[in-house]
Specification:
Strand order of the largest sheet: 3-6-9-12-14-15
Structural class: mainly beta
Strand content: 25-35%
Distance between the termini: 26 Å
Shape: globular
Largest sheet: 6 strands, mixed
Length: 118
């Protein structure tokens, strides 16, 4: 299926209910990733391993999270509930709940949550 769809979604990843992939292709999810309920992921998203030593790990993504096109979330980070990660962002540090982050590296740009995106 990975070759046909362009989506790498290992069976060992922990993914909650109502997971939604909005567009075809280029999506890579690490096999040890944890993704909460009711999350939306756009095309070109990578959720992957990064870091060295005790900082090495994979993301834990909360509930009701929207991840924009071509965003990368890498390393031992926690993404809170109701978060929006803007398109083309690089997230390498944890994100508190009910916020919007954007940029490279991603920084908080507002207290808007994901209500209008999910």
């Amino acid at each position: 299926m990975e070759i046909i769809t362009g989506i790498s979604l290992p069976y060992s990843a922990t993914i909650g209910d109502k997971f939604y992939i909005g567009h075809f292709g280029g999506i890579i999810i690490n096999s040890q990733s944890v993704i909460g309920n009711n999350c939306n992921i756009s095309q070109g998203v990578t959720v992957g391993v990064s870091g060295v030593g005790k900082y090495r790990g994979v993301p834990i993504i909360g509930n009701n999270v929207y991840i924009g096109a071509n965003a990368v979330i890498a390393g031992n980070v926690k993404i809170g509930d109701n978060v929006v990660i803007g398109a083309n962002s690089l997230v390498t540090s944890s994100v508190e709940k009910n916020t919007t982050v954007l940029g490279v590296p991603a920084v908080k740009v507002s207290d808007n949550n994901s209500d209008l995106y999910i």
